Amino acid sequence: MMKSLLKCVAMTTICSFPGVGFASAETTVPDSMIGTWDISRAACLGDAEAGRMQVSQDRLDFWYGHADFAELVRTGPVLFIATDLFQEGTVEPGPSREYYRIEQRDGPDRIAFNVKGKEPRILVRCDYDGLRPPRQEPAPAAN
Are 26 and 11 in contact, with CB atoms under 8 Å apart? Predict the structure, then answer.
């Protein structure tokens, strides 16, 4: 039920964007969005992680926890994600359902990150131009 509801909401939202249609919907995170993001290049170089976010194929990692993807719909530069958010240090047991929108219209080194009901934050890529090494997947074990 939730899966079809999210797709319905995402597709309704998608249709409100000019030039974006149902045929372009996909269910994967584009490689250009995978990586580490923060509020500025200076923040990327610093030790504080309050604004930092790591995007992977199946979750978002924040300084306060992580959000596992429950459903994802992508159309062009826009990614709609329903997640199960696990916050560290909270007294509430279990995850809470959270909805995010990530948009990449201003090139590969900037995204607009939006939590449902809040203003979007513009984030810059941290793992480029020698600031931080690109994230490496572990090598498969040798048999």
Answer: no
Residues 71-74: contacts with CB within 8 Å, 24+ apart? 71/2, 71/3, 71/6, 71/7, 72/27, 72/28, 72/29, 73/6, 73/7, 73/10, 73/11, 73/14, 73/25, 73/26, 73/27, 74/25, 74/26, 74/27, 74/28, 74/29, 74/30
Over residues 102-139, the pLDDT tens digits come to 999 888 899 999 998 899 999 999 986 554 444 444 55
Contact between 58 and 68 (Cβ < 8 Å): yes
Distance of alpha carbon 141 from alpha carbon 40, whole angstroms: 37
Q: What is the DSSP string of 31-75?
A: GGG-EEEESSHHHHHSS--TT-EEE-SSEEEETTEEEEEEEEEEE
Q: Which sequence spans correspond to the domains of the chain?
A: 2-15+23-125
Q: Taking a C-beta distance cutoff of 8 angstroms, is the pair 110, 123 a contact? A: yes
Provide mean pLDDT across the span 82-107. 86
